[in-house]
Design brief:
Elements: E1 13-16, H1 41-50, E2 54-60, H2 62-65, H3 71-87, E3 94-98, H4 120-129, E4 137-140, H5 143-151, E5 155-159, E6 177-180, H6 183-200
Parallel strand pairs: 1-2, 1-4, 2-3, 4-5, 5-6
The structure holds magnesium ion (MG).
Residues 17, 19-21, 140-142 line the site of magnesium ion.
């Protein structure tokens, strides 16, 4: 027996890294009072969401796996993050995190299906939320963020100055990987690329 499921249109998403992408990076952040939004981050998120992108936080939180903070504390941190974003008129549609604590070694290699650079958090959100990965983006400050996006079939934008695209283990497809100063610049890039296909459409002038 088969049940006909109503078809739903898949939506584009922007997957966002947390530390040094939306908030100031505090190593193993444990106190919600220490959260500081990066300048312009909330405004950029508002721009993307109004443009129709679903916003999904995808953050590696090995501090939980290492026993440095509890999952409940991580929840409190994310509650505070959402409160600060709401204060500035922004919001996340979902928060996904990996608590996997990697052993020492090559952090650009996949060590766990969810921990970036693996695409698990992105793929899970896409499945559950009806997201179109092909038209979605990953934005983050580390090469592992860039790789997670590519591994999920998204395009990726490296933000900030913590890393450079030259650190990618293999040459990047120039059409799929970009760099931007910050989340605001990344948002502009995303909107520019979304408008590009329409601009390139065949003219209807006879
Ligand atoms: Mg980061």
């Amino acid at each position: 027996m088969s049940v006909e499921r109503p078809s739903r249109e898949l939506r584009p998403a922007v997957f966002l890294d947390r530390d040094d992408t939306i908030i100031v990076d505090v190593p193993y952040l444990a106190d919600p009072a220490e959260i500081r939004l990066l300048p312009g981050a909330a405004a950029a998120m508002g721009v993307l969401r109004r443009a129709g992108f679903v916003l999904v936080l995808a953050t590696n939180q090995s501090a939980v796996g290492r026993g440095i903070i509890t999952e409940a504390r991580l929840g409190a941190i994310h509650d505070e993050l959402e409160r600060l974003l709401a204060e500035q008129g922004a919001a996340l549609d979902a928060i996904r995190y990996s608590t996997h604590a990697p052993p020492r070694g090559d952090r650009l290699s996949v060590e766990d299906p969810d921990r970036k650079p693996a695409p698990g958090m992105l793929l899970g959100a896409a499945r559950e939320m009806g997201l179109d990965l092909e038209s979605s983006w990953m934005v983050g400050d580390k090469i592992t963020d860039v790789l997670a996006g590519l591994n999920a079939g998204c395009r990726s934008i490296l933000v900030g100055s913590n890393a450079t695209l030259a650190e990618l283990p293999t040459a990047a497809d120039p059409g799929r990987v970009f760099a931007a100063a910050d989340l605001a610049a990344a948002a502009s890039l995303i909107l520019l690329h979304r408008e590009a296909p329409a601009a390139a459409a065949p003219s209807e002038v006879p």
